[in-house]
Structures are given as structure tokens and as C-alpha cells.
Amino acid sequence: MAPIPYIFRDEDELLKKLKTITKSVDKYYEGFVDIDVIVNSYVSSNTYRAFRKSNNNRPSDIFRNWTRKLLNDSLDIFPLLKTQEEYDTFMLESTNKLCKHWYHKMKYEI
Fold first, then answer.
1. With b meaning 16 or more CB within 10 Å and e meaning fewer, what string describes 15-44?
2. Are residues 102 and 109 in contact, defined by beta-carbon separation less than 8 angstroms?
3. Rounded to 10 degrees, what is the CA torsion of 85, 37, 106, 55?
């Protein structure tokens, strides 16, 4: 049985709850001081066990380097994504770019 969603009494109650969640989110990201820390923390070696090394390139290096570049190049774009559709389009385009980059470097499809 699915959980029953909580219904807030009013806007004030909702805003109060959001403030506590924001503090939790801020605390969670305290240790992530730069993009390298984020990429290395969230993209672990387990992610790549299904992929083989190719052209002396390790899958983890290809993905992490591409991810760093994407994040660095997109920092100004993220705040401009205002709708789910804009975000979905950005993600689809980014995924297609990753696939092309992967094939170029690894010589096989991801």
C-alpha cells in the first residue's frame, strides 16, 4: 500500500518545513567544495564494472573527465532551466553528447 501524502494546513506550515529541509540539504553538501570532489564521490568504480578498457582508456577516466567538463560548462545554464521540459531537453542533449564522446574515445557504444 502506498504511503498517504501529508497535506499541509497552510502556506506558513509548508514554508517552515521547507526551511528545515533546506538546512538538511545544505549540511549534506558541506563537504563538496568543488566539482572534482562531487564527480569523484558520486561516480565510483562500481559504476564501470560492466565496461571494458579500450584504447588504453579506462571507462572511469572517460566518464569523469566528460562529467567535469559538462558541469563546468553548464554552471551558468542550470539556473536558466525553469521547466521540466527544459531540463529533460538539456539531459537528453547531454546524454547524446556523452554517447558520442564515449564512442570517440572507447571505440564502442556505451
1. eeeeeeeeeeeeeeeeeeeeeeebbeeeee
2. yes
3. 170
Exposed, middle or buried: residue 62 (CB in 10 Å: 0-12, 13-18, 19+)?
A: buried
Could you list the pLDDT tens digit for every one of the 110 residues in the chain? 778 888 999 999 998 988 887 667 667 667 667 888 778 877 777 777 778 888 889 898 899 999 999 998 998 898 899 999 999 999 999 999 999 999 999 999 98
* CA dihedral angle for residue 72, residue 75, residue 76, residue 77, rounded to 10 degrees: 110
Assigned C-alpha cell, 107: 571505440
